[in-house]
Amino acid sequence: MSTIDPTLVPGDAALAADVEYSLEDVAQALADGGAVEAEAVPAAPMRIQVGRIVEAPPEEVSALLPAQPIVPAPQPVPVLVRRKVSGRYRSAGGVQLELRVDVDARRPLRRVSGDFYVQSGATLNYFGSFIVHAPAISIGATTATIDGIGVFTWAAGFPRVRVTIPRNTIFNPPGTAAVQFLTVGGAPGASYTCPFVSAFYRTVQIEEDCVPGVTPFNTYHTGSLPAPPPARALSVAGAYAEAGIQMQSAGVRNVVPLGPYGASWSNAELHHAMQANFSLWQNVPQWKVWLLHAQLHDNGPGLLGIMFDQQGPQRQGCAVFYAGVGGAAAARQRSQLYVCVHELGHCFNLFHSFHKQYMNPPQPNRLNALSWMNYPWGFPGGEAAFWNTFPFQFDDPELVHMRHAFRNNIVMGGNPFGTGAALEHPEQFAEPVEDYSGLRLELRGRTSYQLGEPVDLEFKLETTDLRGREVHANLHPDYGYVQVAIRHPSGRVTMYRPMLEQCILPAMVRLGAGQPSVYESAYLGYGKDGLYFDAPGRYELRAVYHAPDDSRVVSNTFALRVRSPLDREDDEVAELLLGEEQGQLFYLLGSDSRFLSRGNEALDHLVEEHGDHPLAVYGHLVRGVNAAREFKTITPDGKVEARAPDYTEAATDLNAVVTASEAGQGLGNISLNLAMRTLADVQEARGDEELAARTARRMLEHFRGKDLKPHVLELIERQAAAYEPGAQHLDAATRRARANRLDHDLTA
Hints:
The protein is an alpha+beta fold. The protein is built from 16 helices and 40 strands. The strands form 11 sheets. Strands 4, 5, 7, 8, 9, 10, 11, 12, 13 and 14 form a 10-stranded antiparallel beta sheet that branches. Strands 15, 18, 19, 21, 23, 24 and 31 form a 7-stranded mixed beta sheet that branches. Strands 26, 29, 30, 36, 37 and 38 form a 6-stranded mixed beta sheet that branches. It starts with 19 loop residues before the first strand and ends in a 9-residue tail after the last helix.
């Protein structure tokens, strides 16, 4: 850690959202302890006459008055309008300070923050950040002084920050901020001279691409449908400008031609497309982001948007899918604005309003937040209640983060989504004191794994109330309704955080006597924080499900053990499975991306050199699923090319998976169910419908030998019947979606 301290000498008032406030307004609001009201509208125009001041009289009354000598009206004393002092300032020199002052103008938050950069030769390096919460504000006729104790990313020797800014008139350029660091007792430290840069607190470059058939969102007038005032035409850039963030276009939108290939995108294709085609993308923190306007995700039209960039430096890319929100109707335009702003909000490291408790540091959940980051369909009172009261803005705690968060906690490519993985509040996973939810969540699966073996568990949600309960069908942690805590062998507790943040319309199912439970399987071995089970020892896991009524349904504590390698081959196989790229390939179920080439090479080596090892089945799985689907890439000249499905290779690998799993050395029930159906799809796509039907019957016989609930077995019987001759077969899009998702719910 550097010993530099840039603070050394070298050697909340509630304010209306749509009003620009002066420093006097803010000071008066603080003195009154209340909100600043809009200035009063002047009365009718006044005119001076002899002996009295009256309202301008009607013409007929004026005619009855005696003539009076003309007296010149006194000229009003000019009011010198002062500039707002809020905005961004920056010093020059070897140690540079970027200062953000937020004490007047739109939605002032009474904060000052800054980032330090150190010049080293021809390079400029980020050093650290600070923020001053609720400083004292002194207003003079020509200057404003802001003074308070800062919170720093390092142990600052001079933690008190005093900022003095001239209050220039609007006829003069903005003033230069003088920043003085002091000890708590007032002894001076370093000082900086920071000229004004911008009224925006931060500037982000955004690059946008779209696919044919999609008309990217432009603007929506908020008065088109019932909503709070003020009514205004709002674009994505406008929504962020209202928050004090400048979204600066990196150029015209590129249209990515799909050619003969499908409009649906997989997670693997999206991530590769960003790395290969986002011209501003670098594997470093930077104020740059990519937004793709696409038609459809493989998970279907219910998936509205996704922040898919979760490898290495994160949060640099997102996509919006117009199959669920496209159209020219006002409600559709409103949804497009919402989804675009919402997904980009994730790139700024903003959590959903109902998941703030899982941030680091945690914050209270805000289910009733009128914010871009809330789900309208999850708002108390319903979706209509949300839109009728939503002012099209971020809430105040989110504004504090966007304007003043420490640089690495917000910059794209900085700290991981959620800012660290520590589970600071394990009580969120504690047993409730009382539980009238009528639901029970169970974690189950294998209790022993070899080192390097992918860990996947089953989630079972069932009703305990004979009257039934409506629940989310999507139990996969990707969708945010279920969170999982992991206690590692060292005692450290982390929260599993999926590699992708997916925003999906809720799929609801009613549990009752006919269908008492839903199941889902999830691969938990890799997420935003890397590999979770990369050391031998005992792990304990516990999950919590957030029900539609906000009940927290806590699961059992599930223990599993990761065994140490028994011999040299076990050790070599573990090395081939435990890479970061391999973890991403398991999560994505394969990828052709050149950015994951080392991971693919490791899995090829596993299959070819250790084909008889029990863990080789996982190499076959990734290769088989990836071969069963096309893989789109965007060429440097902006065209889409696709590798066609290789059904021969897919059938070979998936047959190996099924054979090993049937022998008890492969996948769990849910993943095997999907693997066998994917194999049948491959056989059907090759034109061998009889072989596909035999595979489906083989699947049914396998699961009849398991101790499955009657409603689950009935579902598998219906699945198998779909492959019989004469049955209605799957279309290509459904096959593709299945091949991209092997962990799926078993619901009727």
